[in-house]
Amino acid sequence: MTWPPPDDGVDVRHIQPYEAVKAYRCPGCDHEIPPGLGHEVVVPRSEPDRRRHWHTGCWFKEQRRRARGENPRAF
Length: 75
Known about the structure:
By secondary structure, this protein is an alpha+beta fold. It has a single domain (11-67), classed as Zinc finger, PARP-type (first zn-finger domain of poly(adp-ribose) polymerase-1), CATH 3.30.1740.10. The protein is 16% helix and 25% strand. The chain has 1 helix and 5 strands. A hairpin with a 6-residue loop joins strand 2 (24-25) and strand 3. The longest helix is centred in the last third of the chain and has 12 residues, at 56-67. It is globular, with a radius of gyration of 12 Å. The N and C termini lie far apart (31 Å).
């Protein structure tokens, strides 16, 4: 059995490579996410206009930081 991740006030959606049609800048590493690369879209529920596109690995690393209580990166 797997447990759902703790609710940290964000909604996360995985973008498949065929859905990724634009380039974005990842806030986790400050590198470009090129078109055609699967990634995560993270949307703060309280501020949906502040959604950000993250590399999948960068987002998982950020989740671990948040779970340990470290300062999260800004959205």
